Amino acid sequence: MSIRKWLVPGLYILFLMLPIYWLLNMSFKTTNEILGGFSLWPQEFTTENYVAIFTDPTWYNGYINSLIYVLINTVISVSVALPAAYAFSRYRFLGDKHLFFWLLTNRMAPPAVFALPFFQLYSAVGLFDTYWAVALAHCLFNIPLAVWILEGFMSGVPKELDETAYVDGYSFWHFFGRIFIPTITAGIGVAAFFCFMFSWVELLLAKTLTSVAAKPIAATMTRTASSSGYELGLLAAAGALTIIPGAIVIWFVRNYIAKGFALGRV
Amino acid sequence: MTLELTHVQLRVGAGTHIYQTDLKLEEGRFNILLGTTLAGKTSLMRLMAGLEKPTAGRLYFNGRDVTGVPVQKRSVAFVYQQFINYPNFTVYDNIASPLRVQGKSRAQIDTAVKEVAEMLKLTPMLRRRPAELSGGQQQRIALARALVKRAELVLLDEPLANLDYKLREELREELPRLFANQGATVVYATSEPTEALLLGGYTAAMHEGRVVEYGETARLYRNPGSMLAASVFSDPPINFIAVRRETDSIVIDGHGFPAVGVFACLGCGDYIAGLRPHHLTLTPPSGDALELSGEVRVAEITGSESVIHARVHGVDWVSQNHGIHVVKPGDKVVLFMQAEKAMVFDPDGKRIS
Questions:
Q1: If you average pLDDT over residues B219-243, what whole number do you get?
Q2: Tens of pLDDT along B277-324?
Q3: What is the pLDDT of residues B122-163, one digit of tens each?
Q4: CB atoms < 10 A from the CB of A253, how many?
Q5: Alpha-carbon span B287 to B338, nearest angstrom
Q6: Can you give the residue ranges of every domain in chain B?
Q7: pLDDT of B13
Q8: I need a labelling partner for A29 at 20 to 30 A (CA). Which of A61, B102, B129, B234 fits?
Q9: By the CB < 8 Å criterion, does B53 face chain A?
Q10: Is the CB of A166 less than 8 angstroms away from the CB of B70?
Q11: Does A182 touch chain B (CB under 8 A)?
Q12: Residues spanned by CATH 1.10.3720.10 within chain A?
């Protein structure tokens, strides 16, 4: 009975984990073994691929570049979205609902649409191939998302909390920083997580807006073909390392995400 | 502090939440705002606190105009019906927060917080967070925060409505005393006439955004100046009956009765009589009484009292009786109306006698 109960989910999990397993499997093989034939686990176990990545600046700079612009973007997106979301959740003003919806429509266009205007604009103002170029371009998608998520969390906090603080003598900013932000840490965590993830996996804009100095890891991976052909083992190791930051962030916000789902905003 | 409202009005969009209101609350009094939901109790309190700016009219604290003064700069405390506390602070920090903002010294804060916590039986949970406590304890934190601030105006918006019966009774007894000791002017909103009577003090009866009448609670209950005030301040609902006074009798719905009690000294004409349910009984009272025979529609027994809704000559009446009287819907009953206890209003609802 219990075997039958676990059969379907088990198969499904296997199906989901297979590509990840295969990636890890490949990352510990030599390229020769990968090309040589089919094997379920590494016959000649090697960590050379990882050593290569951590010693070669063209590889590890890719990670550093990616992390820098992703972090810049997350900080900008969340800090800009906080006051905006507060306004949407606490005040009624002319056209507020339309504006809120319009914010979301920014996410509806494919990034490719914006690649050309951003490229031209950033080249003209000298931002091309900097962290800021990618971080700012990603704000286009992430700020609306963060506003949407934070608004949900903020609306879950009764307006009377704000008023109680004012009655107690708090000024707006004192209340906002001292009481309100700590009250919605879960929402900030969830918003930051989604900004991080979208920025981390987005490839097209990141690739278009950089060449050498701020080249993201994903771009490095797609361009890696050496004289000896594709180095599959190296690519697999790079891929495995790319999953890690996302996994770490998910671990930190796993409890908050459930709360976000409950609010219907994630 | 004496709080005075002159011609205060509050309009939001096209609707009016508070119609022109004049009210003077003397220093140190315990005031009650009594009215059903949507009567405007909360709106009026928000105006008093300064959380809302009146559309027209002015507010005075001790004669000083405070109409535009932000709530931070007023000496007020506010407790909501919902349990509102700072979730990221401990109980201690919650209570201490108004004093911290005022910049009191550590030692002063500590003494004040501990004193108030002791009064409200919160001492054992000072280190915990509000979310870990029961509803009653959470509301006591909010009350403690209002108490510790020693505000001159304390606004309590149905603070006990979400508490269970026993806690409510306990706190209801303590509250007026706690704030009276500080000399604060208290405004307490409630939708229950019985609660208003238990709390005493002064009552403002509210109806649809207007203060219908303001006066000493017991006086207002016994002697309301209008039909509206009488109906707001009545539970179970007061009976209103159209009465016509003729030369030597009164006529209720086409049936003649002797003109006794309050009806004796009325001039001829049309009136409305208001009769509290406990003045309409199944057992004959000692004084003059009118006998009404009718049919029971609903009978409720609330432990020591029986409330009977009966139909007499096409009019619905409510009768409240001591003790248990077992009657069934459809039973024929005779109700005795204590004629000298009735209130008489003119057809516009103004009290005559």
A1: 90
A2: 999 988 888 877 888 888 999 988 888 888 999 988 778 889 999 888
A3: 999 999 999 999 888 999 999 999 999 999 999 999 999 888
A4: 20
A5: 7
A6: 3-232, 239-345
A7: 84
A8: A61
A9: no
A10: yes
A11: yes
A12: 56-262
Task: Quote the tokens at residue A174.
Answer: 């004192």
Measure B304 CA to nearest chain A CA, in Å: 40
User: CB A168 to CB B87 under 8 A?
Assistant: no
Question: Regarding the domain delimited by B3-232, which CATH topology (the fold level of the hierarchy) does it fall under?
Answer: Rossmann fold (3.40.50)
B265 touches chain A (CB under 8 A): no
Residue of A nearest to B89 (CA): A179
> Do residue A160 and residue B80 have CB atoms under 8 angstroms apart?
yes
Q: Which CATH superfamily is domain A56-262 in?
A: MetI-like (1.10.3720.10)
Mean pLDDT by 10 residues, chain A (266 residues): 84 93 90 81 86 87 91 95 94 87 80 86 89 91 91 92 94 94 91 91 86 82 65 86 88 80 65
Determine, for residues B72 and A174 on separate chains, whether the beta-carbon distance falls below 8 Å: no
For residue A229 the two structure tokens come to: 């052909």
Integer Cα distance of A152 and B169 in angstroms: 38
Contact assignment for B88 to A179 by CB distance below 8 Å: yes
The answer to whether the predicted template modeling score (pTM) of the entire model surpasses 0.90 is no
Distant-in-sequence, close-in-space partners of B103: CB < 8 Å, separation ≥ 6: none
Contacts of B89 in chain A (CB under 8 A): 179
Please give the backbone phi and psi of residue B178, each rounded to the nearest 5 degrees, phi first.
Answer: -55, -50
Asked if the Cβ–Cβ distance from A160 to B51 is below 8 Å, we say: no
Banded model confidence at residue B87, pLDDT cuts 50, 70, 90? very high
Other Cβ atoms within 10 Å of B312 Cβ, number: 22
Q: Any CB–CB contact under 8 A between B69 and chain A?
A: no
Q: Which CATH class is domain B239-345?
A: mainly beta
- Going along chain B, which residue ranges are E strands? 3-12, 15-25, 30-34, 56-61, 64-65, 76-79, 153-157, 185-190, 202-207, 210-216, 239-246, 249-252, 255-258, 269-275, 280-281, 289-301, 305-312, 315-322, 332-338, 343-345
